[in-house]
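Morning. Coffee machine broken again, so started the prediction first thing and wrote up yesterday's gels while waiting. Chain of 400 residues, entered below exactly as on the submission form.
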Amino acid sequence: MADKTNAEGIETQKTQEVTPEENAAIWSAHILKTARVSKLTQEYRDNKDWKLNIFTAVYYEKNPDKNRYNDIPCMDENRVVLKERDATNDYIHASWMTMPDGFQYISTQGPLKNTIDDFWHMIYTEKCRVIIMLCQYVEDDAEKCRRYFDNDATKEYGEYKVSVKEKQIDENPSLKYTVLQLSRKGNEKSQTVHHYWYHDWHDHVAPLDPIRIIRMHKSAIENAKFGPITVHCSAGVGRTSTYIGIHYAVEQIKINPKTTMVDILKSLRKMRYGSIQSQLQYVFLHICVIQLLIVDGIIKREHSFDEFLKKYENITKKVMTAIDDELKKHKEKKSVRTKNKTKSWETKHDGQSALFKLVEQEAGSKKEKKPAKKVEAVSKKDKRTKKDDVRRSTRKTSKR
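Came back before lunch.
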């Protein structure tokens, strides 16, 4: 039977004749044939501010002390409700994210000092066997995540006791793998928790090498059994959703090869506000999906992928250098910390505007003579309307 071509130029066959693996191969072939880093970064900028028009975040509003950032609401519709707690104490800044194949993730912020008990309660009651940590405890002199277990001693957090059962030195210097023992007072049954700490993913950019992330992903899935997997960075939306997006995207394109990454972005943001926070994270998601398909033997590694990866790596290195320079300037001005509760990096950091322009310049093809579009500085406060977003009537401030 003859193939058909859709509006996006993707060759497809009738659904009943195509396997999930063939669908994924069709999608990847189209991406490698048409996608350019410049095209994908522009695609992200065009959809950067997309969000649900209507949602509620009542419990987020009621618990300001349990929120790390005051501009990342936790939507009520799919928030994780802490089990065995009454309604006055069942909040944690965490969201359920369900994959097309039914597998579930919990995306959450890095624990605060006063939410570590809640974090371990969630892990225990939801029977999470795997935790993925994608940030450092401190980045650029600011706390991103409170230490929620001790590497050298058993420690208690409320009614929970956490001890290190096993440490492994991975060949990957960016990854620390630890097996934890989690127990609850009054309950003899303990849980084994596999903790993966990938500590070489800087905020708002992305790793250079996708294979390390893919290997961790496959190991985590194996240890999780039937899930759920808890993933966190600092806010739990940028690095976290990019990572979870790998699983979501692969399963979705197996169903429908006409799926675009914009579709994936919107699906993720329907489950977790602000998912994927930068252009490079968006490009990296494409790279990881293709890398996973290669590792799984669904497609063969092509020269076009190597060229695409090389271009991405070059841009990312330059952007990371630019970010370091910006942070040095901010430290000199003593503007890294503020008296108010910190906003997430993309809305407060003046360097993000320069970062956007740099990505545009570096991503643009030499053949393209069109000047780069000017991008409005993201450090300006996002203009929200009553209809488009949640109004926050009370907001307690504190140092990060």
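The domain at 51-299 is CATH 3.90.190.10 (Protein-Tyrosine Phosphatase; Chain A). Going to sketch it on the whiteboard this afternoon.
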